[in-house]
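Problem statement: downstream parser choked on a complex file, so we are re-checking the raw output for the 2-acetamido-2-deoxy-beta-D-glucopyranose run. The parser issue turned out to be on our end (a line-ending mismatch), but while we're here, posting the original submission so the record is complete.
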Amino acid sequence: MATGNVRYARYILFAIFGIIVIYLISTSSLPTYTEPLRDSAGKYLGNLKGAHEETVTTTDASGDVITQITTGLAAEPTSPNPQYGTHGDLTSSGPSEKMNATFVTLARNTDLWEIARSIRQVEDRFNRNYHYDWVFLNDKPFDETFKKVTSSLVSGKTHYGEIKEEHWSFPSWIDQDKARKVREDMAQRKIIYGDSISYRHMCRFESGFFFRQPLMMNYEWYWRVEPSVELFCDVNYDPFKFMRDNKKKYSFVISLYEYVETIPTLWDSVKKFMKNHPEHIAKDNSLALISDDGGDTYNKCHFWSNFEIGNLEWLRSKQYVDFFEALDKDGGFFYERWGDAPVHSIGASLLLDKSEIHFFNDIAYYHVPFTHCPTGEETRLKLKCHCDPKNNFDWKGYSCTSRFFDLNKLEKPAGWEKEQ
Ligand SMILES: Nc1nc2c(ncn2[C@@H]2O[C@H](COP(=O)(O)OP(=O)(O)OP(=O)(O)O)[C@@H](O)[C@H]2O)c(=O)[nH]1
Ligand SMILES: *[C@@H]1O[C@H](CO)[C@@H](O)[C@H](O)[C@H]1NC(C)=O
Ligand SMILES: [Mg+2]
């Protein structure tokens, strides 16, 4: 009798063990993907369950069934070395602290596959954890393919806006003949985009109109993304939130000297504006960053505007709009080839306090032909960067970033001298 019971119990134990093994094999396969929950308007409501939630069932010594639920982080790291990276900021600033912010891209339908590459990287490195919206702007209607592909890549909501004619055309005060002669002359002198009309509309639009498009009026913060750019490191915190918390209004990753042929009289217009609107000039401005002689001449330093994270309310302020309109009246967008980068940069340097401009060392970035790869191996490893530090432009002779650090009395990251 006794031996029969023991055999019976052993039998049951084997059976339970077998079931557990089968169960573990079936649950240890890939974590299940859960569609993010959205309301009818497509607003992100969070995930149905943690992005990585596993249930493991085992038995204890007495044969009682124990159920353990292991819930992973809602945001998983891109590769399995969790000692670094996604914890701290991500868990403390989840969707509950979502900022009033959007990505913004100006593009043509033909830019689709180049912008798709940019979006994929921004999503992989940052936005898949944050789901910010993305506004696309175009001087022509976007086609169905463009909308379909970009919507499939963006984890937030996508919006598509067509720019109205007066934001993408010659203003009435521009002398068309004079503008044409300039283009012909620049074409002969082989100045890049010197003969292009559309490039000039683009620069004027980015200088004075993108931030007041109807779709952009819904947001307070923007992050500009262009086709064919790269992000080389994880962005494990919310830069919009960083900007707000640290009272920043404008930011950059790459700075350099402007090609003087495109802006011969820009500084004359700026000086006129400063004289006419002393009330708009910030007390603690960065004039010393862009002029080496107290404002007499421009040293051509500017922040590269193909990457920007900034505050839209600042661009919509009377100070900035007066500044843009003063420049626009002087006609240099068409009689020369003023770029939006020097225009934004001079605006930020004169109208903002210098503490309101931020350099993002930890956002690694490429737009042909320059790279910003964070100085400091610790940062690069921590953020899983894939850029070659040899390509970092920050401390090279043609970058203005060193000046920015000196003016703001910031300590340069360790090892910067070796990258000169
Ligand atoms: N809708 C539209 N977008 C444009 C046009 N021209 C340029 N863009 C966009 O404006 C931005 C800047 O144009 P780019 O051609 O990248 O100018 P760039 O960065 O100075 O020069 P690249 O070295 O060619 O990148 C990009 O986001 C372009 O997609 C245009 O005619 N129409
Ligand atoms: C976001 O900012 C815009 C522009 O300031 C404002 O009109 C809108 O009400 C804000 N939305 C939210 C949800 O705060
Ligand atoms: Mg570009």
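For whoever reads this later: Residues 100, 218-220 surround 2-acetamido-2-deoxy-beta-D-glucopyranose (ligand 2) (CB under 6 Å).
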